[in-house]
Amino acid sequence: MSFDVNDYLLENSKPYPFCPGCSHSQVLDALGKALPMVGVAPNRVALVTDIGCIGISDKHFGMHTFHGLHGRSVTYACGLKLANPDLTVVVLVGDGGLGIGGHHFLHAARRNVDITVLVCNNFNFGMTGGQHSVTTPHLALTATTSEGNFEYPLDIAGLVDVAQGNFAARVMFYDPRLPEIIAEAIRSPGFSALDIWEMCTAYYAKRNKVSRTVLEEQLKERNLSTGIVVKRERKGYVEQYRQSIEVLQGKPLPEGTPLAAEFPRPDYRRRSVLIAGRAGQKVRSTSMILGRAGVLSDLYVTQRDDYPVTVMTGHSTAEMVFQPDPINALTVDAPDYVLITAEEGRDVIRERLKGLPETSTVYALEELLPLDTRARVEPIPASAVDIQKKKTQIVLACVAWLAARTGVVSLAALRRAAQFEERQAIADENLATLAEVEPKLGGL
Amino acid sequence: MAREYIDGTEAIVRGALHAGCDFFAGYPITPSSGVLVRMMRELPKIGGMAVQGEDEIASIGMCIAASMAGRRVLTATSGPGISLYSENLGLAIMGEVPLVIINVQRLGPATGGATTGAEGDVQFVQWVTSGGLPMVVLSPTDVATSYWLTTVAFRLAEKLRIPVILNTSKDLVQTMETVDVAAWRKVAVEPRTSYQGGAPYVPYRFAGLGDVPEFLPVGADFQVRFTTSMHDEHGNLTKKPAKVDRTFRHFQEKVLAARDELVMVDRDLQEGATTLVVASGVSARSSRAAVGRVRAGGGKVSMLTVYSVWPVPEQAIREAAVGMKRVVVPEMNLGLYRREIERLLPGLEVVGVNRVDGEVLTPDEIVRIGRLEGGAA
Fold it and tell me: pLDDT tens-digit profile of A17-51?
């Protein structure tokens, strides 16, 4: 099936709403001519616009239209293309929108998302009264550069090039090749952009001399040329995405890990534990083993973790509650048991240690003593938790000590809980650690 | 009973997948990044798509467009990211875009404390965008309600064609707990009411102010117009006062028309009590523990947990306060939701229990500062 310009450009919607002499009209006409050259059906095309004079164009078109926030049209275009890869997505944006949405433009080009961006570049903000934009030529006069623009203009096609987008062209609005170049941009897979040099008669042309000769001189001064200036054959984003996720497709979603009550429930009303160690010591993952052991023992458990933004440095704490029924409070003023496995953990809970009552017990590696607390303190002898292989297993060894001393969970439950790891190697290492320390806990 | 040991992040992801979510875009930010990581891994398995945007603005922009292309869409961020979502959330209201947003609150303002818990966004998420239209916001208290309310958020978003925020916090998404997965509540998410007629499709036509326009995706067999600007029923820009007024009021009325479905509270009222505790989020958990302690000590106290924080379940709060003399409002901010309680219950003594140091409120301090009788430790 073939289409003609009237299938895309609604003749009865004219005249265009632009100022007398504005070149946006030529660009819209050119887009209307380009689409039948591509041959894509109007209902397979989405035209995305945002704020600026060119943004009020969508009512003239018979394709799907999407009108959004200033500068964000590229993000909507990407969303449409990714959600429905069968769509041909074209963006109409001004140099204002290109500036504020530059980040999106850059990354759509880098990702090579299969969209076509037509930048209607008239060197200033028309809609808001002729302020300078990111493409305003050096020394040009605008409402905000009354002494001449001291900034230098951005080259849009060059930006596509450094971002490794597939296609970019620079073209004058009066160039008879414009419809054909737009069509080629749309046909080209991956990201395409056109830098269309335009004429703002209302503002820019009133303050600056603009003519074909002047535009072409500026081109020469900046050492730029018209026509297609970037053309590469990189795969488009949609195809790259499809290939990268192929191995995942159809795989089942994780079901979760049911933990049956395999062990008798310990006989207590509630126990709270605070584990305080160093980031990188595996405090969180080891506490999860302790938590799973609780669930395997028919208990409800909560585990509230705390650590700084960085990893492998600073403190890491886990605050845990164990009880036979669902738990409300994630934190208690005075934990029944505190386990300290590193200096960093000890220091971060210093104030809490001071406030602990005599009824609480603190288990700490002996090297970390003395502690400023009224709670009962039991040192954990280095020999008892001397894990030959790895320092990262020290917390698990200490948790085994805690379990043996307090009965918060049984060692059997801890051993079973240590097996529920995504990676078998980690489960094996955990079990080896427990096997190594358990004989030393025999007398407890 | 099949129990598991998981965190709120996992519950949110499962809730979204069970609600039929098939598109996600987001940007890494602590403490919400877990949702991004999981969605990137899981969605391709079921033919969905997940993208890490170049920033929050791009992420929500992609989500909005994907939703209008017919996808069921989720994004997740934390307070600073919600600030960047602000303008596009207005767009989602204006364009009538179904969209679920997870906000994992952390201590603010600004970058604040990335791994520090807080409930400081409670008012912010309601009036998050320009123009004077509030958001619908739900607030879970634990892993199970994180799952349930994620499905509810999708149901409301799809049904009413609105953005819905699930306002959770660091201490809920990262806390592991025992859950009875089989007992989890969930709601069904119905497909959007779609337009069945022929061309031309009038994208923003609604008969009554409270009706939701029939949906067709961008990419349908005939033209669909979407716009963020004030528009007429055809999706064309308009300044005509009568049309503007009608469209504007419609945004509010369609939400109010669903007001019964928007009330989600848990009433734990005790006969003879003259003190009511009103709380949401992680603070509701500590409050429940405090209430349990008061009752165990022979005291009397009532408790209302608010899940649907915005719009405020005004009637439910007024009803729970019948016969009360005092209301205690514990929260991890300087008293943000307390303002609503004071507004609704003039004449009652309203006491705030507040913490802004990143620590979760303890039952002890709720009893002590809230002066709950019978709750001595």
Answer: 999 999 999 999 999 999 999 999 999 999 999 99
More confident of the two residues A442 and A266: A266
Min CA distance, B11 vs chain A (Å)? 10
Closest chain B residue by Cα to residue A60 = B236
pLDDT band at residue A439 using 50, 70 and 90 as cut-offs: confident
Residue A350, pLDDT > 60, answer: yes
Residues paired with B165 in a beta bridge: B101, B137
Check if the beta carbon of residue A321 is closer than 8 Å to that of residue A302.
yes
Q: DSSP 3-state assignment of A341?
A: coil
> Which residue is it, tokens 């600004």?
B110
The one-letter code for the residue type at A344 is E
Q: Helices (H) and strands (E) in chain A — how many of each?
A: 15, 15
- To the nearest whole Å, the CA of A63 is away from the closest chain B CA by 6
CA distance A326 to chain B (A): 8
Which residues of chain B are within 8 Å of residue A419 when distances are taken between CB atoms?
Answer: none
Q: Closest-CA residue in chain B for A319? A: B175
Q: How far apart are the C-alpha atoms of A26 and A57, rounded to whole Å?
A: 12
Is the predicted pLDDT of residue A387 greater than 90, yes or no?
Answer: no
DSSP string, B233-267: TTS-B---HHHHHHHHHHHHHHHHTTTTTT--EEE
Cβ contacts of residue A165 below 8 Å, gap of 6+? A108, A109, A110, A112, A190, A191, A192, A193, A230
Residue A388 has pLDDT above 70, yes or no: no
In whole angstroms, what is the distance from residue A270 CA to residue A337 CA?
11
Amino acid in position B154: F
Summarised one tens digit per residue, pLDDT across range A281-327 is 999 999 999 999 999 999 999 999 999 888 788 999 999 999 999 99
- A300 to chain B: closest CA residue: B178
The pLDDT tens digits for B35-80 are 999 999 999 999 999 999 999 999 999 999 999 999 999 999 999 9
Q: What percentage of chain A has pLDDT greater than the value 90?
A: 90
Q: What is the ipTM of this complex?
A: 0.97
B374 Rama class: left (phi>0) / alpha (psi -120 to 50) / beta: left
Query: How many angstroms separate the CA atoms of A34 and B333, rounded?
Result: 57
* Alpha carbon distance A179, A434 (integer Å): 73
Nearest to A220 by CA among A159, A172, A176: A172
Nearest to A305 by CA among B7, B275, B324, B313: B7
Residues of A in contact with B42 (CB under 8 A): 253-254
